[in-house]
Structure formats: structure tokens, C-alpha cells
Amino acid sequence: MSEQTPLVQSPECYAPGWSTTQTPCRGLGADCTVPCEASSRRWVLGFWSEFVRCSLLGLLLSVLALPAPLAAETATAAWLRHACLRDPSVRQRCDALPATTVALGDSAVVSTAQGELIRGVRGMLGRTLRAEARLPKESAVVLGTFDALQAVAPASKPPTGLAEDSYWLKTTTLNGFPCLIITAPNDRGVLYGVFALLRRIALGQAVSPLDDRQVPYAPVRWVNEWDNLDGTIERGYAGLSIFFEKDNVVDDLSRARDYARLLASVGLNACAVNNVNANPRVLRSEFLPQLARLAEAFRPWGVRLAVSVDLSSPKVVGGLDTFDPLDPRVGEWWKEKFDEVYGAIPDFAGVVVKADSEGRLGPSAYARTHADAANVLARALQPHGGLVFYRAFVYDHQLDWRNLKNDRARAAYDSFRPLDGQFDANVVVQIKNGPIDFQVREPASPLFGALEKTNQAIELQITQEYTGQQRHLCFLLPMWKAVLDFDLHAHGAGTPVKALVAGKTFRRPVGGFVGVSNVGRDRSWLGSHLAMANLYGFGRLAWNPDLTARQIVDEWTRLTFGRDRRVAETIDDMQLKSWSIYEDYTGPLGAGTLTDILGSHYGPNIESSERNGWGQWHRADHAGIGMDRTLATGTGFIGQYRPPVAKLYESLASCPDALLLFMHHVPYTYVLHSGKTVIQHIYDSHYQGANEAEELVRQWKSLEGRIDEQRYADVLACLEYQAGHAQVWRDAVCNWFLRTSGIPDAQGRAGDFPSRVQAEAMRLDGYRIVEVKPWEAASGGKGVECASATGPCTASFRYDGKPGWYDVSVQYFDQNNGTSRFKLFVAGQLADEWVADDTLPSRKMDASSSTRRKVAGLALRPGDEIRLEGFPANGDGASIDYLEVHPTLRDALGIPARRRNPESKAF
Ligand code: GCV
Question: Comparing 24-33, 198-207, 521-530, 541-550, which segment has the lowest mean pLDDT?
Fold first, then answer.
């Protein structure tokens, strides 16, 4: 992705009323064009105009029942826009809010809470609350911990026994005046209570009377960022790091502060800032003051800093000749190191460890166990209250693929189950949701149900590595919910994954939820407005996994896009079905995301999973597909589940279709519960998914005029790109299975493209024909690229259809090594020209760089020449795959959108 975004912007740049020029899906970049120094005066003006607009103009328009102007939006505010509420009934409900707010005690977090309350109420209601430090002789919103409240109001009766971070919103009488108290056992809880109140106001819910106690489901609600110290981010799709640059912590930590604010607003309480593929330098003494600055930036929002560490640090950083966890010198080194860390960062949260995985060093170097490795860290952290998150993502990536009994899915259980009970009390085993690696569909990891005497946390991936890299809409909550609600029968029936990870089932002292977020400098944080629902949703789910995906997305949509019902319903619907749509055109029936696993993890590359040691095998050949993981004939993976679950998956009769190919190897002619054969399901689901991706564009377009122009255009660009790329996926997968199985599509679609003119079949001047690899990445396995470095090159043909209005789609390869240009001519007239400057994740002509330009509404006559001119640049050969001509406004879908129940538990 593009990395050019400069670090600027104090929070002032994000005040309501600022427009953006962000371009998601097209090389994300900076969008706050106002330099910080220049911005504060304009921010003040911006605030007053927003105030006036909210309080006076808004009311006037509401009274006259006229639509309010759509303010330009900043993506950076995300769900914390605090947009003006105009609905008189909603405003009336807020009349009960006192005009004064008191922050009790001297906690920085409570003081942040007060600032947030003032900021939020001002944005939404146009009123500026008076800030007090003592109980006034009037009504007030009173903020403080239980202790602080009791000190000034001994008669107040805060509830007892509430867990850390819980909060209580209560309307009551203090000193004879009606007050709203926001109180909690700790200061972070007070801040969470304020964000909850602001959410209530934004969603138009009652603020009085209130008696709302909220307790987080689990104590661990962390995010991990895979940021490298040089500023790049592993599997980050939104630009460079907001934390690091050139091996140092960035000077300007305003984005880090804003990020902590977002995290706190959904109850997330710690952030591990560097890649789990950790650079040992993070623990060097000279680096600690830099980490301390980051911790300081997070602290006002109650977000504690953590880091990923490399197990070899005692050797690499400490100069010892070993990192053997059982060597006393190593134990001593870790102890001294963490004493030093806590000296610089007293509220340091702990460490994340990736060991013996994907080439990382680990305890196996000394024939020690993972428990040995985790405990040496744990003992050094324990006196300070720190935690060790030891990742269960441990597997051999050099497995012999010829041995049909080998199975990467077994690895986490095989490595950690025997160690149950050997980990110290402050170790948490961090387990990915599924046994492979964040594929579009996996069963719940059996390890969750196998650890009874060990703390655990679930690791969910917010950054969409295998699920479209934020260029494809893929709302992950339905997938996460399916895993969290899945009953592993670990302690009899009724032990869902969520209860296990929270430590409820086996009464573990600590546990919970970790989300791999990987936000970047892009103003929208994740490089896509709609993808932010995943970050929001992760936080809300970690707080309360009993919320439904629909409840969460509806909150998010209304906070992000406002209270227009049509907008909310449309976006909710798009989000809720998006995972299922993505799954349909990518990986079928649990076979895995059929992507390029050796490269970008993005476009289709069906065979890249096979015949290598990485173990993401689907074992598709001419006769059938799927991993046989049964106990009877396969790898035995299914035996890692408790008997009721193993029984479900072992039998073909009861194994759900959605996971069939994860558990079984079957012939293409095998008939699913749906009544379709596997091969026909592959064809149908890929056409269905691609059609529904086109439908998303239409749904979004129905919102034009109801959303501010900038975000409307940004999202439209993403969805149009996605629709084109879904077609690339559809064709690659269908063509590959058609050729491999030799079984035709009963509906005759696969391999038949009547509206398509292949580039290699056109009249070429300057272009040469090339074989594309893998062959399924290009229509017909071939494309054309300019033979010379500068071009121009032309590819042309004569249109021989009926006269009329047509849309012409140009399928070309936008390689990221250069910026080529194209011109499209119809009958000698220039119809369109564009620059291929996207930053798709490939330097080659392949399915990751394949993209589409749709030129709508062209008048074509028989005999017209359609000519494409390409201008290559810097190795990007202005390459073309094909052109398609479709009548304008023709409903090209053919298949009606099927009804989905996105929250069904398919496992
Ligand atoms: C940080 C997958 C990703 C890697 C990632 C790894 C992990 O393999 O592709 O980029 O490494 O998971 O979770 O450790």
C-alpha cells in the first residue's frame, strides 16, 4: 500500500466540518490538507460554525422538516464523530442532562473522561458543559471512582464486587440535587462509562432515569499491532506505522493518542505496539525512553502499553551466550530487564511472544518446552503484575506434503495440550480462532477446549489479511460470533468458546480477547471507512460477546453515518452479508481461501497451497478436493475435539457443508446437504458471490445524497473495485476447477464468456502476448504487455454487435512497480483515459494486480473500432487481459440475490 502519508495533524484537524481528500482502494494517502500550525484558528472557527449549525440552524431545519446540509466528514473521527443531533425528540430527551460536570479526584483518566464528555455533548447538542472539580450546589454529571465518590458523598451506595473496568451510570440525588453519576471501581471504568453515555446520546437512547451497570465479559481486551520499528507494518493495509519510523518512535504522537482514544471508547485496555515477529531492539535500554513516550501517550485513555519480544533477546540484546530459558543467567537477565522496563513504564501491561514459529527462535533450540519459555518471562513480570501472552501459533512450515497424515491444523493442540497446567498464573496462551491461519472459514480451534489449567485468549484478525485486505468489504463479526458461540463441549454441553477464553468455564484468573488491528497512517485508520466496523465490533464483542453482529453493526453504522434509517438499514445489510459474499467468491466449503499463499495472500492462486511445506493444503486434484482430517482414514485432527464435536465432524452425514472440505476429502460429484454436487456448488457460489458483489455497488448507490460526498465516493470506489476483483476470483476458481475436474458447469457459465474479447485475439501493435502465471489469473491464461519500455502500444478490434448503448469494461493489470496509462477510443473518438496508479499487492501480471475500468454509456455501431492505447512506465507494461461489452442498464446478474441469514451458526 502507499506509504507516503506524512505524519501531521493535531486533533484539531479532525474537528467536525473538515473535508477530506482520501482515496481508499487507490493508494491511500494523507487527506488533511491543512497543516497543524495553520489549523487551530480555523478549528476555532470550525467549532463555532459547528456549534451554530448544531444548535440553531439544525433546530430550524428540523422544525421546518427540511433536510440538513451534509457536513463534510473526517474519516479519522471514525465512530466518535459526535455529529450534531437535530431530531427534536432526541434533543428533548437530553434536556435532562445537567449543565455542569464534576471530575472527582486527581486521576488523569477521569480528567480525560470529563474532557470527552464536554467534547461529545458539545458536538452532538451544541452545549458546552461547565467543568467543576468539586460537587457544585446544582445538578451535575458526577464522574469519579467509587472511592472518590464515597469521599464526597458518603451516602452514595456504589455496587460492590464489580470487576475492574465495570461502570455504573446512575441518576440519583446528591447534596439535594438531581445528578447523573458515572462511577466505577477504577478510573478506566469511569472513562468507559462516559463513552457509554455519549453512545446513548448519539443513538437517541434515554439518558434519564438511568441505572445501568456494565461489567466486561473478560479482563483481557487487547489489540496487537504488527508494526515494525522501521515503520512498515506486516499485513497492514493502511500505510505506515503511527508508532514507529526509521527504527525509532515517531516524534509526533498525536495519531497514537487518537488511536488510544478510539480503543478506549469501545473498552479496549491494552495495545502491543510492535510486530510479533519482534525486533529484539525493542528491549534495548536506549529504546525504553521511547517506549515510555508511547505509554505516556496512551495513559490518559487507560490503554496500557505492551510489546512483543524475541526470545533470543538475552543473547542478542543482553550479550549472553545463551537464551536457554532454564539457564539461571537467562532468568536473571529477564528479571533485570523487566525491572528496568517497569522503572520507565510503571503500568507496562506485558509481552507477546511468537516462538518456534515461521522461523522465529524458540525453546526448541535448547530442547525446552513452551512452558519453560513462557514461565521465565512470567516470573520476571510477576512482581510487577505483567502478563505473558504466549502464542499458540506454532507449527512446522516445512512439513512433508507427500505424507497424507501430516497436518498443520494439528500443530497448536499437539504442542500445547500436553503442557496444560505447566504455565504460570500470569501466562495467557493466545490462540488464533481457527487451527490454520485466519482463513475465510475455519472451525474453532480445538485447543480452546483442551486447556483446563491454563489461561487463554482468542486471537482475532481485524486486519483483513486473507479476507480482502480492506479492499473487499468483509465484516468479520458474523464469523467471529460463529466461533465464539460454538460449543466445544469442553465441560459438558454449554461451553462455548467465549466462556472458555474468558476463563469462565475452568475458573481461570485471566483471559479474553486479542485483536490484530494493524491500523496505519491513512486517515481512515484501516484504509477503508467500512472496515472500521471490524475494529469497533472487536471492541464491543470483547466487552460483551453476547451482543449480536446486527446490534453491533447497527450501532457502528449510526455512530459513523448518522441516524438516517435508510442509510443504517442499507449499510447494516451490506455489512452483515459481506463475509458470506466474500467466502462465496473465494474459498468454498472450508477448503481455505484459495489465494496466493506464497505471496500477497490476496488474489486467487489455487495451486500455491499445494506441494510445499506450509501445510495450507486443500489437496484438490482431477478427482476431488479436501483434507481428510478424520480419525478413521485421515490425519486424526478431528480427534482433538471432545467426542460430541468429533462425532459431528467425523461423519459425512453430519459434517456441515460449510466445513466439509476442511474435514473430508471427497470427489467433485459428492452431493452436499444442499442437494448440489461439490463441483456445482463451486460454480454456483462463485457466480452468486460475484453477482452479489455487483449488487453491493447498487445498494451503495441508492444512498447517494444521504452520505457526505467524500465518504460516499471513497466507498463507491472500493465497492466498484471489489465487484471487478470478485469477477477475477470467480473466473480463476471456476476455470481452474473446470479444467482440473473436467466436469462442466450445469448452467454453462464457467469457461464461456460471450461478451469478452481477449486481448491476445485483438489486433496488436507494440503489444506482445504473454503467458500469465498462474494460468487461471488471466482469461484464457494469456494477456498482452507492451514490448517496449515506453510504448505507446495499441490493441484494437471491430465491434460487430447491434447498435445501442453499451458499457465497456477493460480488464487490465495494474502492477505496483510503475504507473502506466491507458486511453480508450471508440470509432476514433477518445472515450476515456486513466492512470494505472493503484498500489495493488503485485509487481506482476497476476490475479492480485488484475483490475477493471468500466466505461459506461458508450454508443456503439457495428464496424466501430474499439482501440486501447497503453503507455507503460517503469516496468508496468500497461498490460491487458480482455475487454467486455455489455448493454448499458442490462441486468447482467441473471441470478436473483438469495436471502441470507448472516448470523447463522454454520459450524
Ligand atoms: C506476523 C500469518 C501471517 C504472518 C504473521 C503470522 C503470525 O502467517 O501471514 O504475516 O506474522 O501469521 O500470526 O505470526
Answer: 24-33
CA 588 to chain centre: 21
Pocket of ligand 1 (CB under 6 A): 226, 234-235, 275-277, 354, 358, 393, 437, 465
Alpha-carbon dihedral sign for residues 631, 637, 643, 647: negative
Q: Provide the grid cell at 534.
A: 471490524
| Helix or strand run (H / E) with residue 811 | strand 804-813
Scan for cell 464491543, then name that residue.
Answer: 540
Could you tell me the distance, in angstroms and rounded to a whole number, from the CA of residue 299 to the centre of ligand 1? 28
Predicted confidence band of residue 351 (pLDDT cuts 50, 70, 90): very high
Of ligand 1's listed atoms, the one at least distance from the Cα of 234 is 10
| Distance of alpha carbon 132 from alpha carbon 114, whole angstroms | 9
- List, in order, residues 6 or more apart from 904 with CB less than 8 Å away: none
Spatial CA neighbour of 393 closest among 421, 373, 377, 370:
370
Euclidean distance between CA atoms 32 and 297, whole angstroms? 21
Query: What does pTM read for this prediction?
Result: 0.93
Q: Which of 223, 227, 228, 235 to mutate to test the pocket of ligand 1 (most atoms within 8 A of CB)?
A: 235
Pairing of strands 270-272, 455-461: unpaired
**Which residue in this structure is represented by grid cell 452483515?**
576
The predicted structure's pLDDT at residue 157: 86
How many angstroms separate the alpha carbon of residue 642 from the centre of ligand 1? Answer: 28
Please give the positions annotated as active site. 358, 437, 465
How far apart are the CA of 363 and the centre of ligand 1, in A? 19
* C-alpha 907 to ligand 1 mean position (Å): 24
Residue-wise pLDDT for 711-727, tens only, equals: 999 999 999 999 999 99
Ligand 1, atom 13, lies closest to the CA of 393
Q: Which of 223, 224, 226 to mutate to test the pocket of ligand 1 (most atoms within 8 A of CB)?
A: 226
At 568-595, the pLDDT tens digits run: 999 999 999 999 999 999 999 999 999 9
How many residues in total does the chain contain?
Answer: 907
Confirm if 576 and 475 have CB atoms less than 8 A apart: yes
**263 closest CA partner among 236, 225, 309:** 225
Residue bearing the CA closest to ligand 1, atom 2? 437
Measure the CA–CA gap between 15 and 33, rounded to whole angstroms.
Answer: 13
Can you give the pLDDT at residue 608?
Answer: 97
Pocket test for ligand 1, best of 437, 459, 601 (most atoms within 8 A of CB): 437
Nearest-CA residue for ligand 1 atom 12 is: 437
638 neighbors 675 (Cβ within 8 angstroms): no
Report helix, strand or coil for 786. strand
Per-residue confidence band for 72, with pLDDT thresholds at 50, 70 and 90: low
* Confidence (pLDDT) at 658: 98
The x, y and z cell numbers of residue 619, run together, are 489437496
Are the CB atoms for 820 and 869 separated by under 8 Å? no
Integer Cα distance of 281 and 337 in angstroms: 13
Q: Give every CB contact of residue 361 below 8 A, 6+ residues apart in sequence.
A: 310, 311, 312, 323, 355
Query: How far apart (Å, rounded) are the C-alpha atoms in residues 593 and 652?
Result: 22
pLDDT at 691 over 90: yes
Distance from the alpha carbon of residue 517 to the mean position of ligand 1, in angstroms: 13
- Dihedral pair phi/psi, residue 401, rounded to 5°: -70, -20
Report the distance separating Cα 295 and Cα 273, nearest Å: 10
Nearest to 880 by CA among 755, 790, 774, 796: 796
Neighbours of 748 (CB within 10 A): 9
55 has a pLDDT exceeding 70: no
Q: What are residue 213's DSSP bridge partners?
A: 168
**Amino acid (1-letter code) at residue 752:** D
243 vs 282: CA distance, rounded Å: 12
Please state, in angstroms and rounded to a whole number, the distance separating the CA atoms of residues 369 and 423.
Answer: 10
Paired strand residues for 826: 829, 866
